[in-house]
Amino acid sequence: MTTQVLQFVELSDQDRKAAKTFDKLGKGDQVEVRVRRKSGEDQVIRLPPKAAALLETALGHLLQGERVAVLAENQELSPNDAADILGVSRPLVVHRMDVGDLPFRYVGKHRRTTLKDVLALKSRIDAQQAAMEALAEDAEDLKRYGV
User: Fold this and answer.
1) Does residue 88 share a domain with residue 49?
2) Which element (helix H / strand E) includes 58?
3) Per residue in 72-117, pLDDT tens?
4) Is this prediction's pTM over 0.90?
């Protein structure tokens, strides 16, 4: 039995239309969340500014029709979850683990890596991709203009 670490949330079109947007939070704004229990009791929770900013960002993405997942930096991921984040195949993630590009540990006989390490690898891959594209542009310029 596998458990999904990446649990995305999305709003239906109906929920998106019914949701009320609010203006961007300003410095010094207070955000409180009211929870109405089944018992009818209300609970009000005051959010710290950074938590409010996170909710504001997540809600903004949800209202635009995007899917959102919240993960902790040290969250352990399976190779499948890492592959989803990196946009590559699971076998390529396992290869990256085997050659030392992506740190991991075994939990029983299953590999696990952290979100922090996956994002660091993604950053390196993106930088390499940008460098390759710049080289390709330079090669095209040389071919076109004979510079």
Assistant:
1) no
2) helix 49-63
3) 889 999 999 999 999 999 999 999 999 999 999 999 999 999 999 9
4) no
Q: How many domains does the chain have?
A: 2
State which residues form the domain around 135: 76-145
E strands, 39-122, in order: 42-47, 76-77, 105-107, 110-114
Tell me how far apart the terminal alpha carbons of the chain are, to the nearest angstrom.
Answer: 59
Residue position matching structure tokens 């996956």: 118
For residues 49 and 60, the answer to whether their CB atoms sit within 8 Å is: no
- If you write DSSP's letter for every residue of 28-53 in order, what string do you get? T--EEEEEE-TTS-EEEEEEPHHHHH
- How many angstroms separate the CA atoms of 4 and 107, rounded? 16
